[in-house]
Specification:
- The protein is an all-alpha fold.
- The chain has one domain.
- It is about 80% helix and about 0% strand.
- Helix 1 crosses helix 2, helix 1 runs parallel beside helix 5 and helix 4 packs across helix 6.
- The protein is flat and about 70 Å long.
- The two termini are about 25 Å apart.
Length: about 220
Amino acid sequence: MIEKINISLWEFFVYFLTGLLVSILVTLHYFLYNGFLNIQDTIILKIPAVLLLLIFPTLVILIGLILEPIVNYYGRIISIIEKKLESFSPNKDLKNWGAQIDQTFREFVKKDVPAELSDNIQIYNWCKDFIKQKNINTNFMVFLSMFGFYRNVEFIMLLNAISIFFLYSNCIAKYVFILISILLIFIFRRRSLIFYNHMSLTVYQNYIIARENSNNN
C-alpha cells in the first residue's frame, strides 16, 4: 500500500514540477514582452488569494498532464533522429550502454516468454509488466519519474528557445539566452537517457531476482 502511494507521489512530482516550470516561463515571457510596468493591471492579481491557492495547483498539474503525451511523441521523433545520425550523436555512449543492457538480459529473459510470442514481444515490457502485476518491487518507478521529468524539461527548453527567437527583437541577450536554452536541451537529454538506462537495468534485475526466488521456492 505504501509503495503504491510512493508511486503516485512520484507521478504527482513530475506533473506538478513540469506544469510549474511551464507556468513560470509563460509568466516571465508575458511580462518581458508586455513590460513589467503593466503588472498591476494583470487579471491574475485581481483573483482572491484563497481562490488562487485552489486553482493554481490544479492548473499546474493539468498542464503537466496535457504536456505528457506531446513529450512522448517528441521523444519518439528525437529517438528516430538520433538513430539516423548515430555517428554524430553526443549521447552515443549512453545509447550503446542502453543497448548493452538490453542485449545482456534479453536472451536470459527470453527463455521465460512463450515461444509463439518471443519474436513479437518487447522483453523489457514483459519484465516491467510482470514486476508490476506481481507487485514485487516497483523502485524502478523512481527512475521512470526522473526520466520523464528531465525529458519534459528538455522539451520545455526547446519551446523556450523557439519563443525567445520569435518574441524578442534582435540583440546579443536574445541569442545568448537561445544558446543557453539549447545547451540545457543537450544537458537534460543526457540526464534523461542516464535515468532511462538505470530504469531498464533495475527492471531486469528485479525480474531476475523474482524469478530466482520463485525457482528456489
